[in-house]
Amino acid sequence: MTAAATGPLRIVRLANFVTARSGGLRTALYHLGEGYRAAGHEPVLVVPGRRDADEQHPWGRVITLAGPQLPGTGGYRLLVGRHRLTRLLAALAPDRLEVSDRFTLRWTGRWARANGVPAVMVSHESLTGLLGQWGVVPGRLRRGVADRLNRRSAETYDRIVCTTRWAAEEFTRIGVPNLDLAPLGVDLETFHPDRFDPAVRGRYAERDEVLLVHCARLSPEKRPQLAVDAVAVLRRAGVPAVLVMAGDGPMRAALRRRAAGLPVHFTGFLPDRAAVAALLASADVVLAPGPVETFGLAGLEALASGTPVVVNAASALPEVVGSAGQAAYGRPEAIAEAVTRLLARPDVQRRRAARSRAEEYSWPAAVAGFLRVQDAEPVARSVPV
User: Fold this and answer.
1) From its phi and psi, is residue 317 left (phi > 0), alpha (psi between -120 and 50) or beta?
2) Which of 96, 135, 298, 330 is the most exposed place for a label (fewest CB within 10 A)?
3) Of 302, 219, 227, which is closest to residue 263 (Cα–Cα)?
4) Which residues does 173 contact at the CB level (< 8 Å), separation at least 6?
5) pLDDT of 53-111, one tens digit each?
6) How large is the C-alpha radius of gyration of the chain?
7) What per-residue confidence (pLDDT) applies to 72?
8) Does domain 10-185+362-373 fall into CATH 3.40.50.2000?
9) Are the CB atoms for 379 and 37 separated by under 8 Å?
């Protein structure tokens, strides 16, 4: 990277796998954009969508390019048309380039280098894990393929940014020298224990029942079926558990069939963040069984709401939740056992520990970390919408 800039920078950000209903990545992009603006810089976000658009938002300018939908993903689209995107980048004339996609947009690192633009790639997923989830590479070859692709990315971009040490491991194991750690944050005001609502809790559970919540896309990489199966295990063990599946995705119909006869409620997509916060704060335990999460914003939002989380031990979430949650490998029996361990703690103690852990992650701190990686100093004024 260059020496830290002292004036306003145009930070152009490219991202795939972002929709109006997507979760953690969209949340991170929006909060970081707001933080960049507040620091006096000009964020421009380029994402795929159903149709072209160019809009101003509190998180900066958002340019949407019409892109094809990926089958079986529940609405994810891709930025395609390299020549079109190249022309757009040239017209935007970025001072910094930030890319949140490790697959189809990897070529933008070469464009940035050829045009003298400092560029970072943000690793929002484990490439090794995703190759396993997709089943496109045999297990014995998976690590080698991931290592080759990761090495090329590190050679192309000025910096690789990971949000956890877990996510960074696949780069450290191949000796990548231009690696930075910059954790994400959580909205500590929207997600707060004071959002607890007896009416919300009563909508799904009786007084003596245990309310579990799974809040994520209902898609294969999130392994939502483990949450449903864990409820079955708990009920057989005499634990009066009920489950709320908050979110939508391509697995919804199959999960409904799987949950037949169990006290499992499907809310669909919840557009109101306050409603999500109230649900999380009113739960006893939140389940986050996805094995390839590299940070897990939904789990952190649960902690901010004062609710402990059971996470997949194979993911980055044990690093994020610490002792405020429990880690279990991807079996329903292990998840059910982790739930019972959390419930054995006094309610006040486990809720206080959850909130305390979340307070270690704020969006201002996350923004400062990302600006440090960009060699971008805050400037005196903010950029108007």
Assistant:
1) alpha
2) 135
3) 227
4) 147
5) 999 999 999 999 999 987 766 677 889 999 999 999 999 999 999 999 887 899 999 99
6) 21
7) 66
8) yes
9) no
What is the token pair recorded at 163?
């949000």
DSSP-assigned beta bridge partners for residue 245: 214, 266
Which among 315, 307, 343, 62 is positioned nearest to 197, based on CA atoms? Answer: 307
195 token code pair: 């959002």
Q: Which CATH number among 3.20.20.80, 3.30.930.10, 3.30.2010.10, 3.40.50.2000 corresponds to the domain 193-358?
A: 3.40.50.2000
In this structure, are residues 283 and 212 in contact, taking their beta carbons and an 8 Å threshold? yes
Burial class for 188, CB neighbours closer than 10 Å (0-12, 13-18, 19+): middle
Residues of the chain with CATH 3.40.50.2000: 10-185+362-373, 193-358
How large is the angle between the packed helices 165-172 and 139-156, nearest 10 degrees? Answer: 90
CB contact at 8 A, 150 and 170? yes
pLDDT tops 60 at residue 335: yes
Of 346, 314, 309, 341, the closest CA to residue 237 belongs to 341
- Indicate the residue type of 38: A
